[in-house]
Amino acid sequence: MQNPILNDSDDSAVISPEAELLISEVSQYLKPEDLALLKSAYFFSQKAHSGQFRKSGEPYISHPITVARILGELRLDAVTLTAALLHDVVEDTGILKQEISERFGSSVAELVDGVSKLDKIRFQTQADMQAENFRKMLLAMAQDVRVILIKLADRLHNMRTLEVMSPEKQHRIAQETLEIYAPIAHRLGLENIYQELQELGFCFSYPTRYKVLLKATKAARGNRREVVGKILDAIKQRLQEAELDAVVTGREKHLYSIYKKMAEKHLSFSDVLDIYGFRVIVRDVSSCYVALGALHSLYKPIPGKFKDYIAIPKPNGYQSLHSTLLGPYGLPIEIQIRTHEMHHIAEAGVASHWLYKSKNTDAGIDDLHMKANQWMKGLLETLNDSSDSLEFLEHLKVDLFPGEVYVFTPQGKILTLPRGATVVDFAYAVHTDVGNCCVAARINGEITPLRTRLKSGDRVEIITAPAAKPNPIWLSYVATGRARSSIRYFLRTIQYNESVKLGERLLNQALHSFGVNPDAIEPSQWEKLVKESKAKSKEALLADIALGKQLAAVLAKRLAVPGESVSNIQSNNSITILGTEGMAVKFARCCHPIPGDGIVGLIKKDQGLVIHMQDCPAVIRIKDHKNMENQLDVVWGTDIDRTFPVSIFMTVVNKSGVLARVTAEIAKADSNIDDITLENDKDYTTMRFILQTRDRQHLAQIFRRLKHIDEIVKMGRIKNL
């Protein structure tokens, strides 16, 4: 049954004082027809929420009105404000999306639907549930940024009224706000919302610390008024002398900012508060630099404390000149200099797109909106590359807390990366394919390795190779979520494809042992087996075989003789190891098998097929326990064209130059050294090497060359690391 909705004639009903205030505030920039739409949305929402109350006891309609007022302060469009008034009606009253679309248009309905999906999120204590909820939120945000703007306003009002909740809920919601919502507001350039969310999050997360800091700050600020007034007068006087029309204000430090600086830099309260902040707003960009010069002549600038965010804006579009000066009495003074347009962007962020939509002559606003869309697009790419929600949340938090490293491409384009970013992060920021194929880089013209950390101002050129692939070790030093998710996605995809091929080989071997031709198996048999095994597909089932999650012999029996039970099935054929199986086949590090060794394969769950030497202690332990079901017969193939690591040791007399002679002989035998460890005794040194060898014959050649060194007392192969 359709929900009753108000007719247009009902809009003549008495409007509440709160709603009147909203209409009055937004009437300064909205058209009459927009105001009529808002009034209609108000009456519709009031009717829908009739009889509902908030935990504070207020009528529920007060909440959507306040959310709309917060967005009205950002001068958002009528569609967004209408959706804000209606954002809870689908979730809380049973009114359908179709009704909203018919009454207020499809754009409003889509926004309400997007916010309603977010409101269905109930944050759980389990990390994986919380992470999955954030995935949903970012998906909705990427479809239309106004969804998250409404959600941020909704969260802000809820934080303002959080005192009615239990202490446990207060702490949980405040922590979510500090970890996710406040950083998103900051990333979108919504500075006022960001600051208030941080302050409220701090207040309810650490109430005692908040109260102590609040009391101390109020007392300190009362004592500072005279000093602040003198500095303010001096700045205004100098700017007037420079013939600049400027608005100068003092900037109070926020409590959470004070708290973080004290905690991170181990500073006392007085050290943090003894920094005075001032903001200068001027007419145009050239005036910013004139003002900077004037103030540098008033107070000496502190070296290394100047940042030009006008020439190189922050990722969220923020622009200003920042400089720290040495003021009277040796007090540090932080100065921000910006234009009026920059100030609007700093206050409203992406909302500036709608604020200046009709008179947009500032290219910076379009650029800001483009950057926001690029960031959200990057989040979607990370979302697609992530295997699970926890991994995505990890990448999201990395991207929400970026540092400020600005580097240049060879073409002069500026890329912003978090502090600690490496060459690999830069490569993936350029393009995923560039990251996947990178092998080195030129930084400021000099060849550097991939793990090199970048500094602001570096000019970076990536060197690629067509056959290059991501290395798992990259994950230990990359700093961006995009790089980490791209590397993991590539490694998972490669391993999956290789596992499917290996699983097919293992299954075919088992089928041959039953005298069954794999090509003769009907598709219907495969469909039945996949369904019974609860696998997603045939390929997934084959990958499970390679990863040890399914036994090839068991599945082969079910395919060969449907309906029969399986017991004590052994395969008579051997798997041939070619050395080209990639990540699906691993060579045990405990014994480092090489071609020519007698080998055996062990299927380990989630690791796949691991190749050991036959006399490896790990294999012997399995035989002693008669646990043979996951053991496979394997043999080396012929014409293997690759090298394998092998461990050797030698005991040498302590003499100068012995290590150099040993490494020279190894090099002459056409072998590379991967690792060296040394243990010194009084007269002897034990050297352990991991070398790259082709096979046992190659290893024998290395030993023959080393025998010519008289100082070597004993040497051999290490088979049990």
UniProtKB/TrEMBL annotation:
Residues 403-464 form the TGS domain. InterPro entries: ACT-like_dom_sf (IPR045865), ACT_dom (IPR002912), Beta-grasp_dom_sf (IPR012675), HD/PDEase_dom (IPR003607), HD_domain (IPR006674), NT_sf (IPR043519), RelA/Spo_fam (IPR004811), RelA_SpoT (IPR007685). One of its GO terms (cellular component) is plasma membrane. It is an enzyme of class 2 (transferase). Keywords: Transferase. Its EC number is 2.7.6.5. SUPFAM superfamilies: ACT-like (SSF55021), HD-domain/PDEase-like (SSF109604), Nucleotidyltransferase (SSF81301), TGS-like (SSF81271). Belongs to the relA/spoT family. This is SpoT bifunctional enzyme (P)ppgpp synthetase II and guanosine-3',5'-bisdiphosphate 3'-pyro. The lineage of its organism: Bacteria, Pseudomonadati, Pseudomonadota, Betaproteobacteria, Nitrosomonadales.
